[in-house]
Amino acid sequence: MYQGLGVGVVIPPWNFPCAIYTNMVMASVVAGNAVIVKPASNTPVIGFKLFEIMEEAGVPAGVVNFLPGSGGEIGDLLVDHSRTRFIAFTGSKEIGIRIFERGAKVQEGQRFLKRVTAEMGGKDAIIVEADADLEMAAKTIVISAFGFSGQKCSACSLAVIDEAVYDQVVARVVAHTEALKVGNARNGDVDLGAVVDESQYRSILAYIEIGKGEGTLLAGGGKAEGNGYFIKPTVFGDLPHDARLVREEIFGPVLALVKSQDFDEALAIVNASEYGLTGSVFSRDRAKLERAGRELDIGNLYFNRKCTGAMMGIHPFGGMKMSGTNTKSGGPDYLVNFMEAKAIGEQLY
Question: Class of 2-120+324-341 per CATH?
């Protein structure tokens, strides 16, 4: 039989403050647990409104508990507490590692090992082979990179392009990028809104400056017009494989383009990343696609389509390596993370 673990802590992210919040909380509840939800510091109001909806829907008092505040004060306390049975987290690699380490420590009076489920971001790549539909690949790269202003863990931030078609794909990517409009997201005719806050804004602009020293600026390259944290969709090319823009998560509208000599090198470039969340391969060669499926260390891999937009129940979501614990939210295996199994046997006499 399966039974709930007990009382857990849910720490959702700011970038999907409704969808991921609801998924993490209700998965815990239907598995038989009570939770304390600490919403992201940027999005406490949305978190509270969802809490009200859950109460209105009939969730019993005390099953879902809402506790906003800073991660450094409240988050550490909740993670460390001896009665916290599990922690469900979505956010940055650095905070995920911190939670994993703190959760592993057995506190005084604690009689179990805490279970941690974590989704910790990515450096998501799209591979384009010479035999691919190049126009479709270029459009898809731009959609994957700049939708939601690049502020999602599945966003494409690296394209690895066969050198035989590199110039053709780059030209199309740049053209599609330059056609994008940045502005207030309340206006229906914009493609990119503002990034979330000043801290993220400054971090992204700093990466853009790093990119100017590592490769060739092909599009964008700085602040966009408007009264807000607006950044132009930015593309860099001719980057070395070990460049910071190729290896580090930026979490904003910045795309790195690199050449590959062949499919072997393309796979090696992608697998060299410490992350393994999402990715995509564009090719008409079935053997290459099957090989990518076997060899790429990626939790959500797609062929000839974008690397964003996992469909719940069809593409259970969760990364490998430093992208998290591969706990595959949105699929049947996810609920098992919030339960423990008990085997009962009886000998009849």
Answer: alpha beta
